[in-house]
């Protein structure tokens, strides 16, 4: 897999997917927000970028309103632009996830094992990876320092195998009300719970519940 720049600058916009400059700028902003969230092991659903230039219906002329409504450009009386497009947001987040993940050689070096061992663990679902253009990328949420987070294999095997990668990331990083003890000020995410050394089965049970949903 070819190495890409870790960040997107204004000069990179011409190479981004998207039909307009507004879409490309939105992709770059969502990409940067997703990068920051992933670097801090925060869920992607909380990565936000303020949409500049949002126009409300009251600010537009009647003829403009009618034309926009005719093509479905409004939702809840707010103009739906590139910054509000969930497809653009997901695309940018997926790009950031790929860029910020480890290659199999990088993961092997981190874990001090052979590349063949990393590939074996990907096949047996004791590591989580995304296959892209013939190569594997391993998101960083599953590592802490030079180790795999405790109980990862057990939890991954309990998760539905067809979950979209962005959903897997958010599931591991979002606080869950079921993961809170009396000593906790607030619920923990599955990742935080596993890192704290608590019962792996509590997280695996939540993963199995997703399978039944």
Summarize the structure in words.
The protein is built from nine helices and seven strands, in the order H-H-E-E-H-E-H-H-E-E-E-E-H-H-H-H. It has helices at residues 21-39, 62-70, 86-100, 104-111, 115-123, 152-158, 165-173, 190-195, 200-212; strands spanning 74-75, 78-79, 102-103, 130-132, 135-138, 143-144, 147-148. A hairpin with a 2-residue loop joins strand 4 (130-132) and strand 5 (135-138). The strands form three sheets. Strands 3-5-4 form a three-stranded antiparallel β-sheet. A two-stranded antiparallel sheet has the order 1-2. Strands 6-7 form a two-stranded antiparallel ribbon. Mean pLDDT is 81; it is low at 1-11, 50-61 and 67-80. Helix content is 45%, strand content 8%. With 213 residues, the chain is mainly α. The two termini are 35 Å apart. It has three domains: 17-98, no CATH class; 101-141; 149-213, no CATH class.
Summarize the helices and strands and which ones pair or pack.
Blueprint: H1 21-39, H2 62-70, E1 74-75, E2 78-79, H3 86-100, E3 102-103, H4 104-111, H5 115-123, E4 130-132, E5 135-138, E6 143-144, E7 147-148, H6 152-158, H7 165-173, H8 190-195, H9 200-212
Antiparallel strand pairs: 1-2, 3-5, 4-5, 6-7
Helix pairs in contact: 1-3, 4-5, 6-9
How would a crystallographer describe the biggest sheet?
Answer: 3 strands, antiparallel
Order of helices and strands: HHEEHEHHEEEEHHHH
Mean pLDDT: 81
Low-confidence stretches: 1-11, 50-61, 67-80
Query: What count of helical segments does DSSP give?
Result: 9
| DSSP strand content | 5-15%
Number of domain units? 3
Give the % helix: 40-55%
C-alpha end-to-end distance: 35 Å
The 3D shape can be described as globular
- Oligomeric form: single chain
How much is the radius of gyration in Å?
A: 20 Å
